[in-house]
Amino acid sequence: MSRLTPDMAGSFARLTLSHLERQWPYKLDHIMAGPEDVAAPIDLHPIFHGSFDWHSCVHGWWQVMRLRRLFPDLPEAAEVARRADRMLVPDKVAGELAYLQRPLSGGFERPYGWAWLLALHDELGRHGEGWGETLGPLARAFARRFTDYLPKLTYPIRVGTHFNTAFALTLAHGWAKRHDPALAALIEQRAQDWFGRDRDCQAWEPGGDEFLSSTLSEALLMSRVLAPDRFLEWFDAFLPRCAGREPATLFTPAIVSDRTDGKIAHLDGLNLSRAWCWRSIAAALPASHPLIPQAREAADRHLDASLGHLDDNYMGSHWLATFALLALESDGD
């Protein structure tokens, strides 16, 4: 089973540092209410104006900060800290907050970017330099958005792209358990409302531009919000044929036909995120569960399909290393 090594960590950090502040090309999630809203990304987003888009920049920061903590002796760790000292400062955080206060910004980066910002804040809080405290106002703003949004979301969003509800709530729940118990309880309740009665999932996936498995993202969330015995009962009803490698699509890596096409390149992310899900789900099941060998084998196959392609083209290199880190580090935590 592949594990994260210092050499891998260094290569991931170098790749992400190369684009964290790269301004162009850049894809905005930006509603313009008038001509005064025409502005360059760096003027709209003082911190998160690199890595092709806002959310990729956010989770790029999460990735390099996590690598710095896991491998403090990496040569790249000092550069990560220098960048953080320069970029994660109160006036730049205030600029990011000001963007949220613009008219028509309520749906900005919902929910994927919201969740990654919370994950970044949680990671920063594990460092001793005060970066987490600095980013705190922005994290609390996104937590309030989750608190307001989840009660009125009648139906979960199950697509395998940025709008997926389960993936975002997995990240947000990890933050909320440590920072906002009321939000954690809300996430746990809504997850059970939406997914608690799901049975015999057919796993009609992937779609042609998906980087998340809607099936496995849901199962991963439920492993985080349910007690172990309840998760086992739920999982065995949700995927009752899984120990026999059915549905087969969940065990089959996606084919990526063109890594220069940003949407098709999403499928490398699917392979990496499935590896993360499979490893995490296996860790959440009892050691005797018959699925565990198949889950671990599936994770390795998915990793092998895409781990060697992180830097093939900027359409993947601006974000894929984050998902590789999730998969390689994963032990169910």
The number of distinct structural domains comes to 2
- Using only C-alpha atoms, the radius of gyration works out to 19 Å
- Low-pLDDT runs: none
User: SSE string, helix = H, strand = E?
Assistant: HHHHHHHHHHHHHHH
Query: What is the average of the pLDDT values?
Result: 97
Residue share in β-strands: under 5%
The N- and C-terminal alpha carbons lie at a distance of 17 Å
Task: Bin the helical content.
Answer: 55-70%
Give the key terms.
333 residues; mainly alpha; 56% helix; single chain; 2 domains
Task: Walk me through this protein's architecture.
The chain has 333 residues and is mainly alpha-helical. It has two domains: 1-152, no CATH class; 190-333, no CATH class. It has helices at 6-17, 41-44, 54-70, 77-87, 90-100, 112-124, 131-149, 165-179, 181-195, 214-225, 228-238, 266-284, 292-306, 314-317, 320-329.
In terms of topology, how is this protein built?
Blueprint: H1 6-17, H2 41-44, H3 54-70, H4 77-87, H5 90-100, H6 112-124, H7 131-149, H8 165-179, H9 181-195, H10 214-225, H11 228-238, H12 266-284, H13 292-306, H14 314-317, H15 320-329
Summarize the structure.
This protein is mainly alpha-helical. Helix content is 56%, strand content 0%.
